[in-house]
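User: Hi! I'm working on a homework problem where we have to compare a predicted structure to a textbook description. Could you give me the structure for the chain below?
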Amino acid sequence: MEKERPLILISNDDGVTAKGLQVLIDIIRPLGDIVVMAPDGGRSGCSCAVTVSQPVHYQKVSEEPGLAVYKCSGMPVDCIKLAMHTVLQRNPDVVVSGINHGDNSSINVHYSGTMGVAIEGCLSGIPSVGFSLNDHHHDAHFEPLRPYIYDIVKNIIEKGLPPQVCLNVNFPNVPIKGVKVCTQAKGYWNQEFDPCPRRFDDKYFWLAGEFVNTDTTNDKNDRKALEDDYVAITPIKVDMTAYEAIEEISSWF
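Assistant: Happy to help. Predicted structure tokens:
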């Protein structure tokens, strides 16, 4: 009996028509059969949000041998849940998210809809990865990422990932020097809102801000890798338990 080709489930948070998604499909198409279910528009910054106050709808956009594309009215996590519940006949071998227009390094991973996809796949027991490029432009240049994305996804399909671990992969928007497996940088966003004036109301604001990296003594963090022109691969655990704090907190009682 001929072995089934790997099944790859793809989504993103920039929407089904985003250039990053189209490039991602093209890069990894030789690795298996692909099903895409992506939001019908941009959903950046929605993290692991799910739609609970209204129904979620999806429809087929296109289909050809080895590739089916669907768009969904919900969030990126809705796309993964709905695809696995309604479209796929078996569990995917890998969930792949991206390529995001903009990086998701450091604490950005907590806000990222791109990584929400990878985390949802991980929670479902599927090896998962999110890809992001440090360029927010809608026509960003993704071609230099091609060999890295292909090799990473190929390795995940062949070797898997540890349970409850997914990968957060960020690319610099410059000639790439190599790859580093990193820790997640510590930091925070400063001055997060800019005024958005209205004629009769001064209480409107745009989300903005500047990231401050406080992890200056650790040269193995993802922000440092990006600044040094390396691909930053950060293994992410979905178990958020602070095991080192259990004993201290227990002493309160």
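For your comparison, note the following. The longest helix spans residues 146-159. Helices lie at 19-28, 76-87, 113-123, 146-159, 222-227, 243-250. Good luck with the assignment!
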